[in-house]
């Protein structure tokens, strides 16, 4: 016979912490606490399997359930010495949901169940407090009516308000015992009126009604939505916990509280928490009375004048502090607990791993290692890599008032305020005058880079998480909110409209790139601070991880930042970003305009000194580390002038006629530029360009001491790479001969087309390394333009077509297969081929896990994601390399 | 010891026809003829392996070669009774190249080799004709000087012209023996002057010089280019044939000629050929004298007054006619032969399978089956499927004069003349007046369809083989030259410029869609005629093939045409083509403009009756056959008005403001529309549209008797199909209930994204069929936009990166792998899944071969390619199913 019900805290305790899948988090931990000998009010858990069976059997329960519940209830009665429904000595219970993971506020709870017109009298007598008993009764009716019977909460509120008006009182605390009796009477009348039948008085019926309501709440829309957002499978189901009630509101020897075993905001090792004398749990949360600190330390820290529990109830506090130690020693993690003190006796109602800020997570993990509570590996697994972002960027002051006017995509983390400007030139000009500016654009393009660099933050109204603005902002560490469609920018009137209001250039706004929020005015921010804990955790991560972590960078600033954050080389240096400098773009445009090879060569040669200079600077910063340089990739028209004034400047300097320039522009226009004449196709058509770039790299390498890795983009066939590798090798030989000195270098390719992945064996014959360009690989494999997907991708994620934005987190089922194929075939053809990833996914922890799985040698990401990648790579190594570490994680 | 030299025709014959790879085509067939007992002048072949070794060893010969050549030469001397270099009885030889496949005019030949100041006298004496001997000598010097010594041909010509001026004569035939002696003297002086050394007199030196020149000619640029164009691998190499000379110019009992064993232009079974008395082979080709017919039948047919060989040399003709029979019986195919008659004796110099027109190929194949020379299978394998195009479309009269002004892509076969018009509306208007028009556009769009339909032919200056113009023209059977970049169209001035000249609207031009040529004025065309042979061959093909052949069609005309050509259903009905009718586009635009589902539904419902009507008509034409209908696929902005007048019309009719319309247009614009909001993504975002289309299909199906196959486009994940299949199924149930009648139908998807191929197992759980959309699959797998690839694809094909345009012939290495993966996984998940292809490749023979290989159930192609596909499918079945058939093909 299947066991559907597990007891705890009374005659026997049948569950434990690692039965979370069956008993839910709450139930499993109640059982675990009971087994530890902690004071847990007796109760039982109806398993998640009942929930699954309930939905599979058309909302019918397994036939054995009734018997098992009755038996468990009997057991509680024995343990408590009270009887469910007994008018003289009534047992009251709480009924709470408890899923495998916490879904705060999503599902329902009923307290004080078992009260009716008879038992309320018994409770009054037993407690010696009639007002308490009737107050408990009306609380029960309100919750039960709302949760189980489907009555409107405001109907209860209205009756209560009317009563207070009648009595000419304002506070609930002023309602007398008789008052509550009147209110209860009116509640019953209202229920009868609304339901056409009386409010249920039979405790048995009440219990099953509440159990059914909890199971049904698993499928209400808000729960479904919550699960979708948080990736929780529907078939996990919820458990139901039925537990004998204890009361923190039976007098001044009663109390209730919530606590964290350490400070969840900074990780400090002291007992952090709040309590209220003579109160029920909901009072702590409701904010009617000011909760008091548990400890004297906490009280002093907060500058409170209210006495600490440590002072008021020293004995019970001592018990509670022992519980704290016991729980931390047992769970080896900071706990979030709930307790109640009833008539001087302590009861534990919940424990779970406590949520914490990134700074706290780091400090707690490091402290616990030093306290020998956990190992370094456990510490590493316990820190959410994404959360490190909080430590690297300014955050909004949580105390500050904020007026949110719109929400876009959280494209690059950090909070920033600044004066609204609508052009890159203005951003630069005002920044030079010492102003903090917020660059607001419909979209950004490579021509805006100087303005983005000058700005404190960037706001765009179009584009996704991998739009130009997002990618560049992340690289630079600038805060960015992208694709904020609720805002309409009108460049002509130099203003933007949001919710009907106009924000003009010069106004101040604040953005939070970690949440996507856009706020009016300046909101105070807190500067990040890198503690010693950070360095310590990073050093453990570095000891642990197998994969190297490189960065995507081409400017000296980005490269320095990345090296500071621990990058072990450059995995992607996009040479085209170097082409936009004012003194170069003219030559680039002349090169593009050239109609034959000799002219092109002439224009290209003018670029050589500048490009060589770039590489010398970059290579010096990266001294001793590998640098992967990608040769020219984007379609040429990206470099062309498009606005009239740029066209004028260009035609004048080059001595061309405008007609011809416009004709060439039209010629370069493409229907699908992403799939057009770009990448190595440019190298095939215009070998002069790649030759110049290769020359610049080799000449720079000779002056410095990096090993350049020359990367050919957008290869689809082995032959393309063969042709272009030959060009690079010939250039290398020529340079080495001229200079009388040679350097080591390797030539490889990006794998960013499905065909390249499929032909990886043949391509590997010419490639010494593969770098997975997962941005383009995702675009082509999924047939989805990242610049256009914003229109339908939200629908897609909402309907469960993709779990997450595949441009943010690798689509392992599709794109991942191509990577696996390429890795396998590439290694077959060349066993020592170097493998890396340089798409945006290189900084995403889930994707990094995949990279570890398929055995890549390194990941490369934007500078500010380097610490995240270091930690994620360490976690991936632990999870895949050491199964026991993974077990620990799961259990925690 | 490797045998580098193979003898034939003399003491022994060592080769045979199937040794073509080793001996080249010419050498192998000379040996074969000798073995058959035919009169072949003795000679030997130096193998293609020598050529390969020559290039591998830095242009050195294998060391045994010299000895083997000397020995073979001795053998010729024995057989002919003449001696190489003997002043009294000189053996003269020809040295000719001969590769595995014929490369006409690409490589070099030297005749009369062995002549020098001494042997010329012996030849004079032996032949009794001093003039003949010196004429032969000067011919040898000219050829050898040009081919081996690198002297300029015009230097020889100049000397000869000077001599004729000196002698005051105009014709070569008037040069006397002494005259030739003078000319030879001057040739020698010129050679000494140019080379700094005398013209080689040593026959041995002459021979090796000629052999070296032939091998070297394998690598001259024109030969390399020819091989690239014709897909001939470089490592095949060429053989060298050294053969004793015979002379057709030693008197009136001598002759030379070329012949086909049947008429190569129409296949008629008579001996078709030309000869000249007292002439050398080159004279027949040179056109100085008018060649005469071989037979009296031929003479009468051509209305010639010159006597036939049958009359002039009846005995030798009889021998030749016997050779004809022998060769046809032996080779079982029409032969192209060369012969010489020396002093009454017949010599065979060459035989090979003769080239022929498509009509001739059909007739010869059918006749030979009836003559029991070959089997039906062999007949099927012998006809080039592509060549059938000639039979289905008008062709240029080969006799007509044509002034070619430009060349574009041969986008849709057939030749057509017409009045130049630059807009679809004008095309329609003038066609209504009975004029033949040529629609000339930079590009075409769906809005031009009515004009394309009205036109005799279509010319575009942009776009590739799979551009809109090309695809639609092929579907309609209209001639089309696409992407003709040499022409610049200026809509404003209503004219186009080509080579500096202006062609105005109203001028007449002619295009040949089979070659891409554009001609000035009207060029006569020949209308196609479908003979009984065509029907007979098609019926054999139908008996033989395994795969079904369907068509891509949506208009009644296209569907009728396709059914007439034997289509067995529709494989791709593109519903969006139905949206462009003037009376519908307004509703389509209102649907797109709708900002919420109810408005969208309202607009969509207006389209329902028209769409249902389309399907009823189409289904009636396809009565009893399956019809695959693809739901809406293209991005919505394709339907939107873009020109001011269209915007005006739309805004007026819909009652919208222009500003709002323009805003919506901007909203719909995409960076990469190919990868944008289209296909099933529209169905996910706007289910109303797909629901209406499904309803139209089911309501039409109930009225008729086809089994609709509903196809969801651009699926990348199983979930997309799951959602949309549910929508279709629900719609079906609703319609069936309303109508009280149901029909069979199936739901499937296009596999046109790499991710779909990789997830085919999961997708197949919801798909009853897969149709490979190889256009988009090629675009995404290769990351190559077909609209933009024109800029670099020619470079790519030229450099051997892709053998052929991958949009025309399937890239089996890349895209093919995805198809194989999808087939395998799809069948694993659903063993009876129906598999087809509906991309442009469905009409390409090489791609059809691939489809047979991977086991697809059908191919679908444009109506005019249906016969080609039927034949190609039969050939594929034969080649893959019956290995012996393939062998026959290879040997032939």
Architecture overview:
Chain A has 892 residues and is an alpha/beta fold. The first copy, chain A, has 36 helices and 33 strands. In chain A, the strands form seven sheets. In chain A, strands 14-24-23-16-17-18-19-15 form an eight-stranded mixed sheet. In chain A, strand 23 (508-512) and strand 24 (517-520) form a beta hairpin. The radius of gyration of chain A is 33 Å and the shape is elongated. In chain A, 53% of the residues are buried. Residues 883-892 of chain A have low confidence and may be disordered.
Q: How would you classify the quaternary structure?
A: homodimer
Alpha carbon gap, first and last residue of chain A: 30 Å
What structural category do the secondary elements of chain A indicate? alpha/beta
Beta-strand content bin of chain A: 15-25%
Helical fraction of chain A: 40-55%
Protein chains sharing the most extensive interface: A-B, 48 and 48 residues
Strand ordering within the main sheet of chain A = 14-24-23-16-17-18-19-15
Question: Given the C-alpha coordinates, what overall shape of chain A results?
Answer: elongated
Mean pLDDT of chain A: 91
The major beta sheet of chain A can be summarized as: 8 strands, mixed
Count up the helices of chain A: 36
Radius of gyration of chain A: 33 Å
Name the poorly predicted regions of chain A.
Answer: 883-892
Strand runs of chain A, count: 33
